[in-house]
Amino acid sequence: MEVSNRFYALETVRDVKDIEDYWDKTRGVWKESCEEVLGLRGKFQSGDKPMRARDGKLLRSQDKQKNRWKEHFAELLNRPLPDNPPNIEPAEVDLEIDLEPPSTWEVLGAIKKN
């Protein structure tokens, strides 16, 4: 192994260790913050609250609530196309956009900038 390759390997190991240390500290800060907020908020409340059906009746069982959510999103996402769709003209110039996933070095560079 050449000297430059060894230096590069040591530099990479140091960078990874710095990143791990940073995320360990960040995780600790987030954990403390969340615990403080939960302490101020009080007792945890369950999300099991009744919801209304389309006709206004209360749905108390989880199965009926799940079916209502399924119905809601099916209506929301599968609605018909508008009668008069917008007339959007194509762009005059196609932008050069790299659609490949970022490399490891690009990710490390972005992390170092912050």
Task: Please describe what this structure looks like.
This protein is mostly helical and 114 residues long. It has helices spanning 3-41, 62-77, 104-113; strands at 51-52, 58-59. The chain has a two-stranded antiparallel ribbon. Strand 1 (51-52) and strand 2 form a beta hairpin.
- The total of beta strands comes to 2
Strand order within the widest beta sheet? 1-2
- Poorly predicted segments: none
Main β-sheet, in a few words?
2 strands, antiparallel
SSE-based structural type: mainly alpha
Strand proportion? under 5%
**Could you tell me the mean pLDDT?**
81
Radius of gyration: 26 Å
Distance between the termini: 32 Å
Query: What are the secondary-structure elements, in order, as H or E?
Result: HEEHH
- Count of DSSP H/I helices: 3
Give the overall shape, derived from the CA principal axes.
Answer: flat
How much helicity do the residues have? 55-70%
Summarize this, please?
The chain is 57% helix and 4% strand. With 114 residues, it is mainly alpha-helical.
Give the SSE map:
Layout: H1 3-41, E1 51-52, E2 58-59, H2 62-77, H3 104-113
Antiparallel strand pairs: 1-2
Features:
4% strand; 3 helices; mainly alpha; 114 residues; two-stranded antiparallel sheet
